[in-house]
């Protein structure tokens, strides 16, 4: 494959997923320049993560559990959470619960996209391997972003449960990302039997969270007949 073909195949899944979740915002789509900015910040996170992960591997070893939940999931999700929380959480554009999903997914997919580009060129990846990565690592990062963003949105617009949802916004992505990595590290030959149910569950839950976040938008107009049902 040509360099352009490989680059396109590596970038396309992340961009496509970001557009998908961006268009799922029913009531007030976010400024494209701000979403792009967060995506690019996610891209830049790859470099400090690479350095820190190498240092952690030297210090903590390569035990599959420690690597999955601390060195990989813990570090990556914390830095993505840190980025979204300190750049976007108090921004005026973050004005409805679903916005948390948009920005967390943007940061996650920025990270996943550059990671995918590195993989494609360093491993001389084929189209089939890039399709595999689109279905698993790239979409996995999107799902972790949905979980993170959903709970950041709940934290901002549900003051009584703010602390709980802030904890969930970091702890749950780390947990599911850790489970994802642990399966791939420890089930070399039969990982598909674990991964298909896991990804199916994450997609179903993520789409539920998307609908739930939209339903809680303060910009949503509730018709009289809906108020009766509620």
Explain this structure:
The protein has 230 residues and is mainly alpha-helical. Helices cover 81% and strands 0% of the residues. Helix 2 runs antiparallel to helix 3 (64-87), helix 3 runs antiparallel to helix 6 and helix 4 (97-122) runs antiparallel to helix 5. The longest helix is centred in the middle third of the chain and has 31 residues, at 127-157.
Per-chain topology:
Blueprint: H1 3-23, H2 32-60, H3 64-87, H4 97-122, H5 127-157, H6 162-186, H7 192-215, H8 224-229
Helix pairs in contact: 1-4, 1-5, 2-3, 2-4, 3-4, 3-6, 4-5, 5-6, 5-7
Distance between the termini: 56 Å
Rg computed from alpha carbons, rounded to a whole number of angstroms:
18 Å
In the predicted model, the low-confidence regions spanning at least 5 consecutive residues are 226-230
Structural category is mainly alpha
Counted by DSSP, the helix tally is: 8
Overall tally of structural domains = 1
Family: Belongs to the protease PrsW family.
Membrane topology: Multi-pass membrane protein
EC number: 3.4.-.-
Pfam family, one: PrsW-protease
In short:
This protein is mainly alpha-helical and 230 residues long.
Keywords:
230 residues, globular, disordered C terminus, PrsW
């Amino acid at each position: 494959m040509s360099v352009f073909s490989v680059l396109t195949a590596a970038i396309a899944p992340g961009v496509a997923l970001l557009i998908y979740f961006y268009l799922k915002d029913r009531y007030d789509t976010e400024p494209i320049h701000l979403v792009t900015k967060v995506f690019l910040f996610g891209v830049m996170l790859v470099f400090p993560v690479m350095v820190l992960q190498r240092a952690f591997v030297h210090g903590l070893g390569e035990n599959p559990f420690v690597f999955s939940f601390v060195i990989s999931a813990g570090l990556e999700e914390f830095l993505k959470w840190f980025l979204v929380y300190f750049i976007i959480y108090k921004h005026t554009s973050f004005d409805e619960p679903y916005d948390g999903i948009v920005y967390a997914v943007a940061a996650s997919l920025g990270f996943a996209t550059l990671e995918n580009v590195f993989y494609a060129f360093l491993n001389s990846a084929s189209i089939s391997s890039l399709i595999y990565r689109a279905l698993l690592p790239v979409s996995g990062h999107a799902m972790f972003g949905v979980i993170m963003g959903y709970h950041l949105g709940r934290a901002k617009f549900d003051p009584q449960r703010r602390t709980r949802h802030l904890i969930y916004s970091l702890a749950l992505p780390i947990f599911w990302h850790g489970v994802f990595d642990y399966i791939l590290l420890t089930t070399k030959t039969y990982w598909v039997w674990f991964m298909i149910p896991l990804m199916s569950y994450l997609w179903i839950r993520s789409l539920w969270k998307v609908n739930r976040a939209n339903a809680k938008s303060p910009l949503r107009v509730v018709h009289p007949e809906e108020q009766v049902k509620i």
